[in-house]
Amino acid sequence: MAKKNGTTVYRNTDTNLNSFIDSLSDINLDSSYYLLILSGPYKAGKLNFLKRLEKKLGGLHEIDLRHLITQYEEESYQKIDEAIRNIGETEKTLFLKNGDVLAGEYTGFTYSTVRYATPQEKYLLDKIKGSEKFWVIDLQEFENIDKTLERYSQAIIRFEQPGSFLGKFFWKLRQIKVHGHTFANKRSSTSE
To answer: Which of 28, 50, 103, 139 fits a disulfide with 39 by CB distance 3.0 to 4.6 angstroms?
Structure first.
């Protein structure tokens, strides 16, 4: 566990992650929001964490950000507004999957390592900030956590690949894709 700019950063292997999960049920959402970022390629670890989180906080209302975020700002804003309007008052825990669509970088220089929040990301984060709900955003790549996302979040959990030989072997085996390959983002992470 580490602190960075007021955000607590955990690794999925941290021994105090269980006490962190236990403390989440004590969060008071009556006057604020809570934003938790899950980042990294280790999907089995994330699924296990989400099951434990669901057990602690109740059901997760899932929203796929690929259906909300487009390259057109106004269209994205309308879709975000509609999705938030459709969330019921009783649904307090929301899971935003495919959060990598929020990632942006300075486009004036092709090989820039500086990441900036997109207008769509800023708009969504303002909506999250104005809510009284528990939000979880899932990102596949650590590098897609920009300074704005980091500033709005209370905690980040980094799901890294397994460390043991057997764990690495099975993890790499599950990464094989028959119909193509996705290359990892080469930008450096801000949450390390």
So the answer is: 139
Starting at the edge strand found earlier in the chain, the sheet holding 2-4 runs: 2-4, 7-11, 155-158, 34-39, 134-139, 93-97, 61-64
pLDDT in tens, the chain (192 residues): 666 667 888 888 888 888 998 898 888 888 889 999 999 988 888 999 999 999 988 889 999 999 999 888 999 999 999 999 998 888 889 999 999 988 865 545 545 566 778 899 999 999 999 999 999 999 998 888 888 899 999 999 999 876 666 665 665 656 555 555 555 544 555 555
Q: Count Cβ atoms within 10 A of the Cβ of residue 144 and give its class: 0-12 exposed, 13-18 middle, 19 or more buried.
A: buried
Residue 188 belongs to a domain:
no
Integer angstrom CA distances of residue 123 from 30, 60, 117, 132: 22, 22, 10, 16
The residue segments making up the domain with residue 66 are 2-174
CATH at residue 119: 3.40.50.300
Give the span between the Cα atoms of 189 and 78, in whole angstroms: 30
Total structural domains within the chain: 1
Which pTM does this prediction carry? 0.81
